[in-house]
Amino acid sequence: MEQFDLVIIGSGPGGYIAAIRASQLKMKVAIIEKYKALGGTCGNVGCIPSKAWLDSSEKYHELVHSFDVHGISAKDVKLDVKKMGDRVAKVVSDMSSGVGYLMKKNKVTVYEGHGSFKDKNTVVIKGEKGIQEISAKNIIIATGSKPSTLPNVKIDKERIITSTEALKLKEVPKHFIVIGAGVIGLELGSVFKRLGAKVSVVEFADNVIATMDQDLGKELHKVLKKDGMEFYLGHGVTEVIRNGNEVSVKAKNKADESIIELKGDYVLIAVGRRPYTDGLNLEAAGLKVDERGRIAVNDHLQTAVSNIYGIGDVVKGAMLAHKAEEEGVFVAELIAGQKPHINYNLIPGVVYTWPEVAGVGHTEQELKQKGLDYKVGKFPYLASGRARASNESAGFIKVLADKNTDEILGIHMIGPRTADIIAEAVVAMEFRASAEDIGRICHAHPTYSEALKEACLAATDNRSLNT
Ligand code: FAD
Ligand code: NAI
Questions:
Q1: Residue with CA closest to ligand 1 atom 33
Q2: Does the pLDDT of residue 394 top 80, yes or no?
Q3: Ligand 1 pocket test: which of 55, 116, 143 has the largest number of ligand atoms within 8 Å of its C-beta?
Q4: Which own/partner pairs from 304-310 qualify as long-range (CB within 8 Å, at least 24 positions apart)?
Q5: Which residue in 27, 59, 338, 419 could disulfide with 5, CB within 3.0 to 4.6 Å?
Q6: Ligand 1 pocket list (CB less than 6 A)
Q7: C-alpha dihedral over 325, 38, 352, 231, to 10 degrees?
Q8: pLDDT in tens, 22-38
Q9: Of the bound ligands, which one is closest to the alpha carbon of residue 202?
Q10: 99 CA to middle of ligand 1, Å?
Q11: How many CB atoms lie within 10 A of CB 443?
C-alpha cells in the first residue's frame, strides 16, 4: 500500500491549494477527486464559469444598452449563446488542466475516484481503475458542498434547476424564475436578464443579499429593479411544479399571507448549499457530522480524530473559495509544525453583479447588535470623477470606524470594480488602520479607488474633499 504524509479528499480550491502548500513544505502528498476534472465546484460549476458568463453577458448588455450614450451605435447585434457557452466551457477546461499542471509540478499524486475512509489512516479509492487503498499520516477532508433544495421541490435538472445546470443552459430562458435573492440568484439572474430573459426573483427575506450590510442590498435591489429585474421580497416559496416545458412557482407573502403564482420556462433554485459528505464512510474513522451536516472541527480545523482535518465548504464558516484556500494553507502549515493564523473577520465577500458589491469586517447591523460606538463615512460614486467619466455613477463606499479610536471596523461598497477595491480595505483592516490613515494615503486620480479614500475622510471627521 502506498504511504503518504498527507492525503486530501477533494480537489477544489481548498484541497488543491492545501496539496501545493504541503508539497512546498516537503510532504509526500496525494489528492483524490471523484470527477475527471480537477478544480472542484469553484473551477467547474462555480466561481469560474459564473464569472465567465457574467463577463460575456455584460459585454453584450453594454453593447445593446449602454454604448449609445458614448456615441457608439451598433445595428443588428447578434447573440450566439452557443458560442458564449463554448467560451465558458473552454475557460473551465483550461482552468482544470491548470490545476492538473500544478499537481504535476508540485509532485502531488492524483487519484481519480471516490474516496472513503477504511480507518483513520486508510483511504479507499473507487474509480475506473478499480479499488485502491492508500495510507496517510494525515488526512484533509475537502469535499465541498452541493446545492440545497426546498422541502417538496424536486430538482429535475432540466426545467427546475440549480446553478450547475444554469451554467450550462444552451438557450436564453424566456422567463427565468429565481428562488433566493442571495449571491447565486442575483449573479445568474443578472446573466440571463442581460441576455434578454424576463427575470423574476422570489426571496423570503425583506432584502436581497441579506447577510451583507443592509445598505448594500437596498442599493443593489434599487439598481437591478431599475434594470427590469422583478422582485418578490418577503415571499416564501410553497410550491414548484413542472408541466412540460412550463414551470409554475407559488409563494406566500409573509406580511398578508396572500399567494402569488409565477409561470416561466426555467426555475433556478438558489437557496443555499449543503456540506457534501456522502459516501465518505466517516464512522470508520470515528468521525461525525454536526447538526448542520458539516464536518465538526475545532479552531485548528482539526476533527475529533487528531490526524484528520476539514477545510472549505464542508466545515463551518463562509462558503467561499478564498476562505477554503486560506484554510488549505493553514492546515498544511499546521501539520508542518508552523503556527499559521486566519482572521475570519477579514474574509471579504463579493457579489459580481453590476454594480459589483463587496464587504469586509463588521456590518452596521453587527456593530449595533454588539452595542459598539461607531461612526459612518459614506462617499457616493456620483461624486467620483472617474465614475462620471465612465457613466458608472451608481453606488457608494461606506466606512464604519470606532468612534473613539477611529480604527476601521468594516468597509462596505457597491459600485464599479468594488470586487477589486475591497482588497485595499482588507489590507487596511489587516494592519488595523484608522480611517484617517487611509484618508491620508495618496490615491491616483481619477480612479474608482479614490472613493475609498473619500469615504475614510468622511468617517474621520466629515472631511471628505469632494462632497
Ligand atoms: P469544492 O470546490 O466543492 O470541491 C470539493 C471537491 O471534492 C469536488 O471536486 C468534489 O467532486 C470532490 N469530492 C467530494 N467528495 C469526494 C469523495 N468522496 N471523493 C473524491 N472527491 C470528492 N466562491 C467565491 O469565493 N467566489 C465566487 O465568485 C464564487 N462563485 C460561485 C458561483 C457558484 C455558481 C457556486 C455554486 C459557488 C460559488 N462560489 C464562489 C463558492 C465556491 O465555489 C466554494 O466556496 C468553493 O468551491 C469551496 O471549495 P472547497 O474546496 O471547499 O470545495
Ligand atoms: P445564499 O445563502 O447566498 O442565498 C440563499 C437565499 O435564498 C437567501 O437569501 C434565503 O433567504 C433565500 N431562501 C431560502 N429559502 C427560501 C424560500 N423558501 N423562498 C424564498 N427564498 C428563500 O445562497 P446561494 O445564493 O445559493 O449561494 C450558496 C453559497 O455559494 C453562498 O454561501 C455563497 O457564499 C456561495 N457563492 C459565492 C459567490 C461569490 O462569492 N460571488 C457566488 C455564488 C455563490
A1: 46
A2: yes
A3: 143
A4: 305/120, 307/120, 307/121, 307/136, 307/137, 307/138, 307/139, 308/120, 308/138, 308/139, 308/140, 308/141, 309/138, 309/139, 309/140, 309/141, 309/334, 309/335, 310/140, 310/141, 310/142
A5: 27
A6: 9-15, 32-35, 40-42, 46-47, 50, 114-115, 142-145, 163, 184, 276, 279-280, 312-314, 319-322, 324, 352
A7: -120
A8: 999 999 999 999 999 99
A9: 2
A10: 14
A11: 17
4 alpha carbon – ligand 1 mean position (Å): 24
Atom 14 of ligand 2, residue of closest alpha carbon: 271
Burial class (CB in 10 A: 0-12, 13-18, 19+), 264: buried
Q: What's the average model confidence in pLDDT over 377-385? A: 97
Give percent of the chain above pLDDT 90.
Answer: 98
CATH topology of domain 160-271: FAD/NAD(P)-binding domain (3.50.50)
Active site residue 362: no
* Nearest ligand 1 atom, CA 312: 52
Q: Hey, where are the domains in the chain?
A: 2-147+274-344, 160-271, 355-460
- Mean pLDDT (the chain) is 97
The reply to whether ligand 2 has any atom less than 6 angstroms from the CB of 202 is yes
Same fold, 2-147+274-344 and 355-460: no
Q: Which fold has domain 355-460?
A: Enolase-like; domain 1 (3.30.390)
DSSP-derived letter for residue 234 is T
> What is the pLDDT at residue 164?
98
**Superfamily covering domain 2-147+274-344:** FAD/NAD(P)-binding domain (3.50.50.60)
Distance CA 286, CA 114 (A): 19
Express each pLDDT in 292-346 by its tens digit: 999 999 999 999 999 999 999 999 999 999 999 999 999 999 999 999 999 999 9
